[in-house]
Specification:
mainly alpha, elongated, about 250 residues, Serine Threonine Protein Phosphatase 5, Tetratricopeptide repeat, 2 domains
Length: about 250
């Protein structure tokens, strides 16, 4: 999952349609839920010296876990080693994760790196969207334009996770945007129902369900009629029923 590869290479990102089906979190669950246990399982002693040394580990997942653990256990001592690790990190997703850990301990260098990564058009789109998501977590919307750029473009067959993750940020956008920008996000989400990638189409449908805007019913009906994949049709039908219930409930409240 964390292997470094040139942008032109056909990496494992092609299997990431699974993300749309609700299993994307499984791969990182051990790191996020119990970082200490994860490090121990990879023969990293839980001392500051050994955790700092783990930032040089050959396993990218270990480097990520070491940074996260260090920033939480020893925040006052974490900035320098994490920044050094961030600057030498070649894997974009890991570099962004380290930047976020650095930002979480109050270092502006972390926030600046996140901002640079989300606007780096030569980087994988999924890396850019991850940087944007972390910026939103920091209550900073400076990466909105980068996410909208990815939503406007066709999905990358080698990196379909980019548009999937961008769609998953749409409900957050709606909470912060004006009515005009909200409509733009809605239109981009509706357009994604026609994307060439099944995972993107499924995520567009579930995102419309989360947005709970009955104005999307017509577009979802059309997408359902055109969808050739059985899983895609099932998801669209579920979300369509949900939107119809929302429409009915809204009507009953009047």
């Amino acid at each position: 999952m964390f292997a470094t590869c040139p942008k032109s290479a056909n990496c494992l990102r092609g299997i990431l349609v699974l993300v749309c089906l609700g299993v994307s979190a499984l791969a990182e669950q051990p790191i996020r839920d119990n970082t200490e246990q994860f490090l121990r399982e990879h023969n990293i002693s839980i001392t500051k010296q050994d955790v700092v040394a783990a930032l040089w580990n050959n396993d990218a997942a270990v480097r990520k876990a070491a940074s996260h653990f260090l920033s939480n256990r020893w925040p006052t001592d974490a900035a320098v080693p994490i920044q050094e690790a961030m600057l030498r990190e070649e894997d974009g997703l890991i570099r962004v994760s380290l930047a976020n850990d650095l930002a979480q301990v109050g270092e502006t260098a972390g926030r600046e790196k996140l901002l640079a990564e989300c606007h780096n058009s030569s980087e994988w789109g999924s890396t850019r969207v991850l940087a944007a998501r972390f910026m939103f977590d920091l209550h900073d919307d400076s990466c909105v334009d980068a996410v909208l750029e990815i939503l406007r473009s066709d999905s990358d067959p080698q990196d379909t996770l980019a548009k999937v993750d961008a769609l998953n940020l749409a409900p957050i956008f709606v909470q912060h945007f004006t009515d005009r920008k909200n409509q733009s996000v809605m239109d981009l989400t509706v357009n994604a129902l026609n994307d060439a990638d099944l995972g993107v189409r499924i995520t567009a449908a579930t995102t419309l369900g989360r947005l709970a805007d009955p104005s999307a019913i017509t577009a979802l009906q059309a997408a359902l009629a055109n969808e050739q994949d059985a899983t895609g049709r099932n998801v669209m039908l579920i979300e369509l029923k949900g939107l119809r219930r929302s429409q009915k409930d809204a009507s009953n409240r009047r």
